[in-house]
Amino acid sequence: MPGRVTAPGQRQSLRAAVRAAAVTLGQAGVASPGVDAEELAAHLLGVERTRLGLTPLVEPDWVSAYAELVARRAERVPLQHLTGFGYLGRARVAVGPGVFIPRPETESMVEWVVGALRGRQRPLVVDLCTGTGAIAIAVALARPDARVIAVEKSVEALVWTRRNLTAHAESGGTPIELRGGDVFDERLLSDLDGAADVVVSNPPYVPAATPVEPEVADHDPAEAVFAGADGLDVIRPLVSVAASLLQRDGWLAIEHDDTHGETVPEMLRRRRVLADVADHRDLTGRPRFVTARRVPLAAADQRR
Ligand SMILES: C[S@@+](CC[C@H](N)C(=O)[O-])C[C@H]1O[C@@H](n2cnc3c(N)ncnc32)[C@H](O)[C@@H]1O
């Protein structure tokens, strides 16, 4: 942006402002500087990014406001905190301090879940560790006949979960039930034992010593990201919770760290009540989520 400012009162080229912003963001180490520069401009103009071309010139006030946004992004404040929204497939969720920003890496798991629900009438889906509620909302949008239950324990995150689930219902979506509390509190979900068609979760799973980008280190809640030295402190007990919620032939889908493409499936294969364990890759081709089918204990015992 510096060096591009024109004389006071003079309108200037939007394209030039965006190009300069992309350079600034690139120098600050932002991973996708061009896209982010355009997204910020689109946000400030109140248009889709694809429609930026319809605004060739911008006013000096606009340029100042844009420069401020670009400067904050250059400080590695997440793009979604600046625009106020994150996306997971068709789900658009409000985000900000205190809640994890949904990632595109999770979209493949949501698609898989929607596929697993095919042929099931009025299915029950439980989204453990829901954060913004993005997975629950994405599933509910794909399957309006489903009963979807979202579970989250963080008080700060729950402010965003409630806001998003309310917005979803107010825009005509099938209401999603929210259970605020710890997934490991036995009383929280005991009424759902053996009832779920699908249990889905994107829990905290990053090993503690893993270096992360400033956007994550400084802005995602640590308890949403990290899960002990090996990253499995939450997934390990979560598998038992998921298995007990599932009905016979129900499916679980759990996202995991890309270094756990063998560890987590192996963990599931050791469970007598789970079968058909498979690991799946995300949009970038990295190992990202595991799935398994619930089998009755008796049948599993016979296999031993
Ligand atoms: C990686 S974030 C994922 C959020 C959301 N599912 C998504 O994909 O964007 C993990 C979430 O799990 C929540 N969480 C961690 N441990 C939990 C627990 N024991 N019970 C309920 N929620 C938990 C965190 O507060 C955080 O919101």
TrEMBL record:
<dbReference type="Pfam" id="PF05175">
    <property type="entry name" value="MTS"/>
</dbReference>
<feature type="binding site">
    <location>
        <position position="152"/>
    </location>
    <ligand>
        <name>S-adenosyl-L-methionine</name>
    </ligand>
</feature>
<keyword id="KW-0949">S-adenosyl-L-methionine</keyword>
<protein>
    <recommendedName>
        <fullName>Release factor glutamine methyltransferase</fullName>
        <ecNumber>2.1.1.297</ecNumber>
    </recommendedName>
</protein>
<keyword id="KW-0489">Methyltransferase</keyword>
<comment type="function">
    <text>Methylates the class 1 translation termination release factors RF1/PrfA and RF2/PrfB on the glutamine residue of the universally conserved GGQ motif.</text>
</comment>
<feature type="domain" description="Methyltransferase small">
    <location>
        <begin position="117"/>
        <end position="206"/>
    </location>
</feature>
<dbReference type="InterPro" id="IPR019874">
    <property type="entry name" value="RF_methyltr_PrmC"/>
</dbReference>
<dbReference type="GO" id="GO:0032259">
    <property type="term" value="P:methylation"/>
</dbReference>
<feature type="binding site">
    <location>
        <position position="202"/>
    </location>
    <ligand>
        <name>S-adenosyl-L-methionine</name>
    </ligand>
</feature>
<feature type="domain" description="Release factor glutamine methyltransferase N-terminal">
    <location>
        <begin position="17"/>
        <end position="84"/>
    </location>
</feature>
<keyword id="KW-0808">Transferase</keyword>
<dbReference type="GO" id="GO:0102559">
    <property type="term" value="F:peptide chain release factor N(5)-glutamine methyltransferase activity"/>
</dbReference>
<dbReference type="GO" id="GO:0003676">
    <property type="term" value="F:nucleic acid binding"/>
</dbReference>
<comment type="similarity">
    <text>Belongs to the protein N5-glutamine methyltransferase family. PrmC subfamily.</text>
</comment>
<dbReference type="InterPro" id="IPR050320">
    <property type="entry name" value="N5-glutamine_MTase"/>
</dbReference>
<dbReference type="Pfam" id="PF17827">
    <property type="entry name" value="PrmC_N"/>
</dbReference>
<dbReference type="InterPro" id="IPR004556">
    <property type="entry name" value="HemK-like"/>
</dbReference>
<dbReference type="InterPro" id="IPR040758">
    <property type="entry name" value="PrmC_N"/>
</dbReference>
<feature type="binding site">
    <location>
        <begin position="202"/>
        <end position="205"/>
    </location>
    <ligand>
        <name>substrate</name>
    </ligand>
</feature>
<dbReference type="InterPro" id="IPR007848">
    <property type="entry name" value="Small_mtfrase_dom"/>
</dbReference>
<dbReference type="InterPro" id="IPR002052">
    <property type="entry name" value="DNA_methylase_N6_adenine_CS"/>
</dbReference>
<dbReference type="InterPro" id="IPR029063">
    <property type="entry name" value="SAM-dependent_MTases_sf"/>
</dbReference>
